[in-house]
Amino acid sequence: MFVLLVGALLLALLPSSVDGIVYVRIRNERGPTAARAGIQCLELLSHTYFHMRETTQIENIIDYYVIVIDSFEGLQRALDRISATAAFNPRGKFVVLYNNPNDRDSNARLANRALGHLFVGHHSVNVLFAFAIDATSYHVYTGDPYHGATDCGQMKALKVATVVNGSFASRALSTAMINIPKVPPELESCTFLLCTRVAPPFIDLDCSRGLELQIMDLLRESMKFKVNVSCSTMDRGELEPDGSWSDLLGLMRADECDIIAGGFSPDFDVHDAFGSTTLYLQDYYTWFVPAAGPDARWKLLVYIFEPTTWEAFAGVLFVSALVWRLVAHYLPELAAHRELSMCFLNTWSVFLCISANNRPECNALRLLFMGLTLYALNVTTIYTSILITMLTNPPLAYQMDTIEEILASGVPIGGRLDSEDWFINDFADDRLVSEQYNATSEFQPSLDNLQAVVEGKRSLLMSRLYVRNTKYNGLVHGLSRDVLVTQIEMIMEKGFPLLPKFNRILSNLIDMGIMQKLWSDFLYNVTILDRIRAHRALSEADIIAASPEVVLTLDHLQSAFALYGIGMCLCVVVFLLEVLSKTRWIGKGRVVLEKRWDELLVRLQLKERTAREMTIRPRKMRGLYQVVVDATTLPSSSACTCRLGYNRKGAEEFRSWPFRNLSAPARIKVQQQRRRYVVMIKWEKSKLDIHVMNYCLAVSTGRRQRTLCQALGNSIHRPPCDTIAVNDYLHRLAPWEERKLDGKVETTIACTGTRTRQLIRGMKPNVTYYVDVFAIHSQHNNLSFLLGSTQVQLNRTRPTQLLEGKIVVGKLSTLGGISLFNFKVPKRSTNNFFKLHLTPCGGTVSLEVLKKKRRIMEPVRDVYYPRTITVRNVRPGERYLIRVIEADDTSRLNRIQVAVSSREDFLDLPRMPHNTSITELVPLRKCHSSTIAWFGSPDKDVTYCVYVFKLPKTQYYISNVKMPTYCELESRDVCNHPQFHNKHCFNGNEFNPLSLDIPNLLPEHYYTVFVTAISARGRSLPYKSVRIKTAPYCLDSNQIPSGGGLGATGKGSIKTIGFRKAAGQKRRNTAIGTKNALAERGTSKRSRKQRGQTTSRNV
Questions:
Q1: Sign of the CA dihedral 133, 138, 139, 143?
Q2: Where would you find the membrane-spanning parts of this chain (predicted)?
Q3: In a domain, 173, yes or no
């Protein structure tokens, strides 16, 4: 009705000549004008704030977020969905546009609420909030949490711009306000909460000092912020079944802590949910057991000398008594000197420096007596001096030093909860540890638990640095072999604003050597200064109590009383035996027993022997023998002939010696050098004809070798023993000081001559080798026997852990051509594969992937260039073993680089094309230049660097020319390489494939070209290298002659001449660029030549 009245009034007021009426309606808040204004506002803010054409330094793939809402609840729902993804980046840039026609007045209040929700709930500070105040205008707000003088850490909404119809009201001011840094260089008014776990020496017991606190002080001094340190004994924390975190991680998730520290090592599950700093220190873990104390003093009388020395003393005593008896037998001495028992007693008395009652009368025996006296005087003096030393400083008892001994002793073992994951794998030794591992409070690092270790109640897996920083250092013993070597990091939320600056400062500290300086100061202060202060604090009474005088006690005399008791018992036993042996019936029984024993021995030999020839060896050589031949098994019609021969020293005496040798086999000693895969084998000499025996060593992988003929048959030579003379054949095998095992045969033979040692190289880890030593008689052909046997197995090496997004360098030269890596697929990984990028630093390698000692894919062989390998059919949360084996023994390969990723791309590394080879365009080859082409990276912001190295003309076809490897391209000294020619870097995102014209080359020369792709974060990957050749003749006179250009001017000409891109770019005149005299002469010659051609054409 109101509209009709207004229309009638307008008709009445209009003149009669008007033909039409125009109706004007109110502006629609949801119309196309409002939508266009909102889109223009988003485009303007994106162009101004995102900087999409510039390089960014944000870590994750997703860097920018645009959210359009009409209510605060919509913002909450959108952020909940985004933050649940694995690629969510809290440090990304957010643009939130709010447009609600029903709400045009709550701009400041809603901006504060939205910015606070992003800051508190998701730790994001890089946020722009655009509030629509009408259909075409927006107020733009951003957060300012760290610029306040008194309210640092509290989000404050700051209006930075006004956008009307897609344009700033004041463009210069708005752009500057939008891009103001959210985190200032210095945060003097900000205080952050640092929650620490007591873990000396990183965090001491009172939380007043420690290595990590010193590092935090360096960070605090650099950025001028304050830190409140809270001390706790809680652990790092684990992920609970309900999705929450325990201990310190739970406190940080509840915003009660900003940073946590305390000797924490990297963990995949933690890195998926939290952020971490750069790794800056290392920690070493091993099992600790009680330190061995002094050995029992009653054993010292025997421990003074080695068993072989005591055996030598006994031998000298026995020989001296026999010589005494022999000399007295042929000289007119008293009857006492002709009794063997008296000679032994006299010799023993002289050895003990006691006067002998029976003195000799002849000069020969007197000289023997004088020699024995001087010998005994020296031995007694040495024994007494060593005895005094050992009584005052007794040796230590046996020290337990392996985990196998700890498990066998039954002592409970355990440690921290986060260390148990290292033993949950497929290795049998680690499974035994995992089954007995305890993570209760009684097995955590503390002084009370260390006291329990000293008492032998338990064994703890602890840090060597922690024990070294306590008073129990020296009272407990850490195993010689480290169990774990972990890196140390600090943990914080992913969106923590200071994390990028922390990592940059820590990287600079590591590069400048300050971290090493902190480590050296710690070792000096703990090991020297603390002990000096402890000694200065002792009083005189404490010093006397700490080093009491050695007093002779019953403990020292236990061995003396024991020897006296043993002597008395032996005296009684021998007395009874002598009394019994003098009786008549004992003598008769002994004669009858000896006779029956000989008869029984002959009958047993007759039954066991089936050969036609037989040797009988009775106890006595002289006497009457009865030969009985058992012919009951023969038919009655057949005849039986026997021939009896007597040979006292025949060959059979030698051939039967191996059976006698079994009663005391030769001992074999094995010394392992595991890092070099070298084994030294030593053995005792043969007891038969020691002066004419030679030795051969057989090393087998399948079984033991019982005879020398069996070993020769399984070796590479395979000679028939029945057709050759073994001594002559072995004599042709020259003895070597070192012998490398041949992997193609089962048995390797190494003859040493008369030496009793041999160095063996080339042994593989986790392979059992059977070592058999054979003795060969040099004067009797084909006479050999087994002297001794043993087996050798090199312990396995612990694999290096691979971290996602980290390039790990593995060494092959120190591990015998093998390098092992360990990778655990993250539990939250949604893929059933992971990728390995393998870069051999020269040479050729092969790769195998195993799970539970079984291959999960075919081996990848002959990898000699950077290559990406995809391992499929893997399961999240499981560990896999990657084995890299050197395939070429003649190459100089000693290192490899390995990167791993459970995603499609490698974190921080450029994406490489499927074909990474470089191709020389032969039709474009010229005498001073050549053109190469390659496929570019799928990433947009990638820099390519081309390295050119010249090959000496006399060494084109020699393989040992020393050229740089793929791993040396990022070195600063690569430009100082003697074969270095030039280098050029450029951004090539316009064309694919890419091509490059390499100028300033010499005619008829070979060059090696490397190309590397560098990501925006500075990480690089190389392409497969290529060798190019220049043309021998210069058909185009416009090219630079060989005397000028780069060869004459050096590095300065690189900037002047440069590289030429062949992808549609115009080639510059090199003569003008270099201003070379030869080039000018070439130009003048070309001008005269062109004028001559023109004249001829005119004619």
A1: positive
A2: 367-391
A3: yes
Tell me the three-class secondary structure of 461-482, residue by residue: EEEHHHHHCCCCECCEEECCCC
Cα dihedral: 333, 336, 341, 345 (round 10): -100
Same domain as 150, residue 165: yes
CATH number at residue 238: 3.40.190.10
Locate 264 and state its tokens.
């924490």
Whether 752 has a pLDDT exceeding 50, the answer reads yes
Distance, C-alpha 384 to centroid of its chain: 50
At residue 930, what is the residue type? S
1040-1093, pLDDT tens digit by residue?
A: 444 433 333 333 333 333 344 444 333 333 333 333 333 333 333 334 444 444
Q: Domain range spanning residue 198?
A: 192-282+501-523
Q: Closest by alpha carbon to 657, among 687, 620, 614, 698?
A: 687
Question: Is this model's pTM higher than 0.90 or not?
Answer: no
Whether 462 maps to a domain, the answer reads: no
Residue 835's SS3 state is: strand
In what order do the strands lie in the sheet containing 693-700?
747-753, 693-700, 768-777, 784-793
Are residues 955 and 1009 located together in one domain of the fold?
yes
What distance in Å separates the CA atoms of residue 699 and residue 742, rounded to the nearest whole number? 10
The single-letter DSSP state of residue 46 is: I
Is 1044 in contact with 941 (CB distance < 8 Å)?
no
Distances (CA, A) of 162 to 44, 97, 158, 174: 11, 13, 12, 8
pLDDT in tens, 703-745: 888 888 888 878 766 665 655 666 667 766 767 778 888 877 8
Residues 668, 706, single domain; the answer is: yes
Tell me which of 124, 155, 178 is where a domain ends. 178
In which residue are the tokens 């003598």 written? 587
Examine the domain organization and report whether 243 and 318 are in the same domain.
no
CA gap 720, 718 in Å, rounded? 7
Q: What's the alpha-carbon Rg for the chain, to the nearest Å? A: 45
**Alpha-carbon distance 837 to 807, whole Å?**
9
Q: For the purposes of burial, counting CB atoms within 10 Å of the CB of 11, is it exposed (0-12), middle (13-18) or buried (19 or more)?
A: exposed
Counting the structural domains of the chain, the total is: 6
788 and 827 both lie in a single domain: no
The span from the CA of 126 to the CA of 143, in Å, is: 8
Per-residue burial over 428-467, b = 16 or more CB atoms within 10 Å of its CB, e = otherwise: eebeebeeebeeeeebbbbeebbebbeeeebbbbbbebbb
